[in-house]
Amino acid sequence: MSTGTTSEATPGTASPASPAEIRAFVLAALREMNYDTSEVDDDTPLGPAGADLESLALAELGVRVEERFGVRFEDDEAEQLGTMTVGGFGAAVAARLRAAVAGGPA
């Protein structure tokens, strides 16, 4: 993960992505990473109690989200991803995007 600013937006982005768009991206990324998403919803934890992503998969998901949406996660934040739900993760990314567009910290 990156060690830079935690709320960078992709240059030229007119408006931040919606939580629904972020959720769709996360589910597509999980499928590309060979995870079964048939029973995953907003309340499903990303970690072992739900989608069952291990640390390496959580890191990969974080990097994919960083690349797609232009947000950054600090290394210590990456460890927290496993405790988040799919919906909570999408909301956190959306909040960072809104803060970046507004010019403030997330």
Automatic annotation (TrEMBL):
PROSITE patterns: CARRIER (PS50075). InterPro entries: ACP-like_sf, PP-bd_ACP. It comes from the Bacteria. Residues 17-97 form the Carrier domain. This is Acyl carrier protein. It comes from Kitasatospora cineracea.
